[in-house]
Design goal:
Helices cover 45% and strands 17% of the residues. With 446 residues, it is of the alpha/beta class. The chain folds into 2 domains: 137 residues, P-loop containing nucleotide triphosphate hydrolases (Rossmann fold), CATH 3.40.50.300; 286 residues, no CATH class. It is globular, with a radius of gyration of 23 Å. Keywords: ATP-binding, Nucleotide-binding.
């Protein structure tokens, strides 16, 4: 190993979901999905390595033999010997994890999960696939009700800290020991600044962690730009050759490119006219759905009234659109690395776009799905995020810098009687009754 490069120990909290799946008496084949490069393959193999005697790993990427295998009968008696040969591993029920990687490349492999569920539940089968690839095979029926699905997001702030060797700090935040957190606030804010720049894409985090404190920020930005370029290549790969055509690829790029400007606006509601002058919903609805299906964006829908259940009050015509990762948004925005040493400037960049992105991303991991937001019909008030927890609605306000005036939150708590509300900012923890002032880094933890 080169000098000054430390060993990185990766910890993904979704591992706990995989452990519960393994022990479940009602276990069905598991589909681990998410955007490209969020760490699905690594997590599947690491789970197999640490929880099974053997891992029968089969990648479907550019694999003609597997494409031919699944083109025929997908019976267990035919599949198990072939998968054993391909993986070079003897498959023993209960003791071997079968990993079908990039399953979206062979749609009938996805369909075979139904066969495993119905006729061979003794085999532990974990398939991985990009969210987009799973969604774009209309000619192949999806095995509804025959598998379990979990979604992997980019690394959370806590996972980032663990990877960077800051286990004590991560444990402190997890414990919610606010007396100790108060003492360490400035240090944690420094690490939050790193996270806003680096983000949670595993390979990028690994590059940062391996070289810290002599972090290769130029190399990190280059990796982020390469990821963004790869995603653009996916736009063309999945659309130009089909019925959607080049004009659809153009609309995808237009929506994607508009994200920094959309989020830098004071009102972050998605505006079609900000994509292209005169743009309308019918021009871009399909492109937005495509980006959602690919897990490249997080949609935060509006609710007309902040009452439970939130799904019942969803307004399909209004929403916010965030990037999948705060570091990628920083790269798309051209954020200069020097902002890391300019005090609170980082948290005010783009009118707080980065910190709202951060909070949204952490909530998505906590909730295993995006939160909602609320705005009054007369535009007299807005709550940045809302979610349901333990049968109650939790409103969230996000404030750039240490400015914590939150009139909308105060009014909403009084009007709707929310028992708990969070106001996230760069300030320290303060419990003011129903409204709790929380440091930004506690988003997704409390």
């Amino acid at each position: 190993m080169p000098e000054n490069v430390r060993t990185v120990v990766v910890k993904r909290f979704l591992m706990q979901d995989l452990e519960r799946w393994k022990q479940s008496p009602r276990r069905r084949p598991l589909l681990l999905e998410g955007a490209r490069q969020v760490g699905k393959t690594w997590l599947a193999n690491e789970f197999g390595r640490t929880h099974y005697d053997n891992v029968a790993y089969v990648s479907f990427f550019d694999n003609a033999a597997m494409r031919a295998l699944f083109a025929g009968d997908i019976t267990i008696d035919r599949l198990i010997p072939a998968l054993s040969i391909e993986s070079g591993t003897r498959i023993v029920p209960e003791n071997t994890l079968i990993v079908l990687d990039e399953v979206q490349e062979v749609p009938r492999a996805l369909l075979s999960l139904k066969t495993f569920a119905e006729t061979a539940p003794q085999y532990h089968v974990l398939a991985t696939g990009s969210s987009l690839g799973i969604a774009i095979h209309p000619g192949t029926p999806f095995p509804v009700g025959k598998l379990q699905r979990v979604k992997l997001y980019p690394m959370s702030f806590l996972e980032f800290l663990y990877a960077c060797g800051q286990q004590a700090m991560a444990d402190m935040l997890s414990s919610q020991d606010f007396a100790l957190i108060e003492l360490m606030h400035d240090k944690v804010m420094t690490w939050l600044g790193y996270y806003l720049y680096v983000g949670g894409m595993p390979d990028v985090v690994r590059r940062f962690a391996e070289t810290f404190p002599n972090a290769d920020f130029d190399g990190i930005r280059e990796m982020q730009n390469t990821l963004l370029s790869d995603y653009r290549d996916d736009f063309s790969k999945h659309t130009d050759s089909g019925s959607l055509g080049p004009s659809f690829t153009l609309r995808l790029n237009q929506v994607w490119d508009s994200l920094p400007a959309q989020l830098a606006r004071e009102n972050k509601k998605f505006i079609y006219g900000a994509v292209r002058s005169g743009g309308r919903g019918k021009d871009y609805e399909l492109a937005i759905q495509w980006l959602k299906d690919s897990s490249l964006v997080l949609e935060v829908p509006r609710v007309s009234v902040p009452l439970k259940p939130l799904t019942a009050y969803r307004d399909g015509a209004a929403f916010k659109l965030y990037c999948l990762d705060v570091g990628l948004l920083a790269a798309m925005s051209g954020l200069d690395v020097r902002v890391l040493i300019e005090g609170d400037a980082l948290f005010r960049e783009f009118k707080g776009a980065l910190i709202e992105q951060f909070v949204c991303q952490q909530l998505a991991v906590k909730l295993t799905g995006s939160p909602y937001y609320w705005s009054a019909a007369n535009s007299s008030g807005e709550l940045d995020f809302l979610y349901e927890e333990h049968g109650e609605i939790v409103p969230v306000e996000v404030k750039a810098g240490d400015h914590t005036q939150a009139k909308s939150l105060i009014v909403a708590v009084r009007k709707y009687g929310f028992p708990k509300a969070f106001r996230f900012s760069t300030r320290r923890y303060h419990d003011a009754g129903a409204i709790k002032d929380m440091p930004l880094y506690m988003a997704g933890i409390v």
